[in-house]
């Protein structure tokens, strides 16, 4: 997606060979015009999948997921990284944070997904696929089915795509980074 690639090149910061910072339009400040275009792109790609719910993980997946949810006219659920005392019937799983390099517990309220739900998972980044695996676990604990994976920025030099594709899912990434070297991005 050209608009997104331009935003990454012009407004992103390469922290090191593995980590990209996009706080100015996605991870801290949100560029709503860009998010709207991102939402439309996901909606167009997954339009034949009869998606009933979109699932993401707080907090950085929420913006692209909500704009996609608006376009597809389906609810958006964000999985939580800590359990609020108000949860009635939570499901839990263990997750691993790529950026924080530590484990955490991910949870959601069981009632928001059921066996009739066809779920599109959306996230800001795909690195090694651990966030997806944890989300898939919770979605399956609720009896629902994953029908697609939408990623805003994929780092194709890490193993996430292969891991998710091996499970048979359609992974649609809007920007695919082959490498980050010498402060430059090489696109796939
Ligand atoms: P994975 O679980 O696929 O290894 O990593 C994906 C998650 O880690 C995403 O939800 C994202 O929040 C975070 N992440 C992975 N790589 C990057 C990166 O280069 N920059 C930022 N800002 N977050 C990342």
UniProtKB/TrEMBL annotation:
Gene3D superfamilies linked: 3.40.50.2020
Keyword DNA damage attached: no
Domain called Phosphoribosyltransferase: residue spans: 37-170
Localization: Cytoplasm
Pathway: Purine metabolism; XMP biosynthesis via salvage pathway; XMP from xanthine: step 1/1
GO molecular function, one term: xanthine phosphoribosyltransferase activity
Record bears the keyword Membrane: no
Matching InterPro entries: PRTase-like (IPR029057), PRTase_dom (IPR000836), Pur/Pyrimidine_PRTase (IPR050118), Xanthine_PRibTrfase (IPR010079)
EC number(s) reported in the record: 2.4.2.22
Sorted UniProt keywords: Cytoplasm, Glycosyltransferase, Purine salvage, Transferase
This protein's name: Xanthine phosphoribosyltransferase
Species of provenance: Faecalicoccus acidiformans
């Amino acid at each position: 997606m050209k608009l997104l690639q331009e935003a990454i090149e012009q407004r992103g910061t390469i922290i090191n060979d593995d980590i990209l910072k996009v706080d100015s339009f996605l991870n801290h400040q949100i560029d709503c015009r860009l998010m709207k275009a991102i939402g439309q792109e996901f909606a167009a790609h997954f339009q034949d999948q009869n998606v009933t719910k979109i699932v993401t993980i707080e907090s950085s997946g929420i913006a692209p997921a909500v704009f996609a949810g608006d376009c597809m006219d389906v609810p958006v659920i964000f999985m939580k990284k800590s359990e609020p005392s108000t949860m009635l019937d939570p499901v839990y799983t263990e997750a691993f944070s790529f950026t924080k390099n530590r484990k955490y517990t991910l949870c959601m309220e069981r009632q928001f997904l059921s066996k009739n739900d066809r779920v599109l998972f959306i996230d800001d980044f795909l690195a090694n696929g651990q966030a997806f695996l944890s989300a898939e676990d919770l979605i399956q604990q609720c009896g629902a089915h994953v029908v697609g994976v939408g990623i805003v920025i994929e780092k194709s030099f890490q193993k996430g795509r292969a891991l998710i594709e091996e499970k048979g899912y359609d992974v649609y990434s809007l920007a695919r980074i082959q490498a980050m070297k010498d402060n430059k991005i090489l696109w796939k």
